[in-house]
Amino acid sequence: MFRRSAARACRARLLQSSGFATVSESLLKVSVVDGGRPAASVSLVLKAGPRFEAKPGLAHVLKNFAFKGTSQRSALKTVVLSVTLGREYLAFTAQFLRGDEKYFVDVLSGLVTSSNFANHELHESVAPQIEAEARAASADPAVVAIDVAHTLAFRSGLGNPLLAPSHNTITVEDVKAFAAQTFTKDNVAIIGSNVQVADLTQLVQKSLEGLTSGTTATIPTKYYGGESRISAHTLPTIFIGFGTSTPSPPLAVLSSYLDPTPSMKWSEGLSPLSVLPVEASVQVVHESYSDGALLGILIQGPTTEVVKEAGKIAVKALKDAGAGAINSDALTRALSKARFSAASALEGHEGLTASVAAQV
């Protein structure tokens, strides 16, 4: 209980010291971190990730429809923007010089109020892009392992695949229905950096006034777990971990404790995973969601023997941590490292979006 409270207090202090402010008006939630810098950004974060799709791949297709044109602007006028797909949210982002927020808020708002979703764009540009991304993902054993780990951990909801299958039966009507379900006032949060919260609130209220009310139903997350083996002619890979069905700040501390990345250059680090075979590569994966989390160790190596040996060490490290075999010095270091990681994440807009989206 102490660690969880400390983590929450730390996050609150970090946001407060960064000039964080949140306003909720007419169902719209606006959050801003204003550091007074000249480079600003705004994201529209929508509850439209794979967790909420009724048909596999809908969120991925909707993501790739972004910036294909609206009733006000062609695709050529929106190429300066970016889109991010998470398991729970879809985020449209614009980066610009401070003072230009009026124009870019208007552009972003058009994506959720007047996207065309043209049938020819689905077949000519969206579908080929989805197929290319699906092929690239399936060829990366690390991506496959993490995706399978989510499916084993949560099955549906957070366990839904992040990307659409390379061959799918999704139609424009499916996309329009999903957009109508998720592009609502209750489902959108606006996150800005280096803008005035009052100005941003006024702009989005005007630009998004056409959105209807309504929220996407959320089925509570349940953790299952399991084991799976996939035959592949690629780099031997193993993922060992576990999940929870509640947000778990202590997992961030455990992630920092396990992370083998040394704090000082040229040192081996003090992580229990630092003793893995030199041929093996290791990555600690910590994914946190609104009502769940997944923590694991991703190991890759040139041979199955190397991966198996490294896997034994990883399992021991997880069991020792679970049994409370962490001394006070190691725990203090892990807490400090977790706080620093949280502070660093707030420095960039992408990290800010990921950190704040679930809260707002």
From TrEMBL:
<dbReference type="InterPro" id="IPR050361">
    <property type="entry name" value="MPP/UQCRC_Complex"/>
</dbReference>
<feature type="domain" description="Peptidase M16 N-terminal">
    <location>
        <begin position="37"/>
        <end position="165"/>
    </location>
</feature>
<dbReference type="Pfam" id="PF00675">
    <property type="entry name" value="Peptidase_M16"/>
</dbReference>
<dbReference type="GO" id="GO:0005743">
    <property type="term" value="C:mitochondrial inner membrane"/>
</dbReference>
<keyword id="KW-0809">Transit peptide</keyword>
<protein>
    <recommendedName>
        <fullName>Cytochrome b-c1 complex subunit 2, mitochondrial</fullName>
    </recommendedName>
</protein>
<dbReference type="GO" id="GO:0046872">
    <property type="term" value="F:metal ion binding"/>
</dbReference>
<keyword id="KW-0496">Mitochondrion</keyword>
<keyword id="KW-0472">Membrane</keyword>
<keyword id="KW-0249">Electron transport</keyword>
<dbReference type="InterPro" id="IPR011249">
    <property type="entry name" value="Metalloenz_LuxS/M16"/>
</dbReference>
<keyword id="KW-0999">Mitochondrion inner membrane</keyword>
<keyword id="KW-0813">Transport</keyword>
<comment type="similarity">
    <text>Belongs to the peptidase M16 family. UQCRC2/QCR2 subfamily.</text>
</comment>
<dbReference type="InterPro" id="IPR011765">
    <property type="entry name" value="Pept_M16_N"/>
</dbReference>
<keyword id="KW-0679">Respiratory chain</keyword>
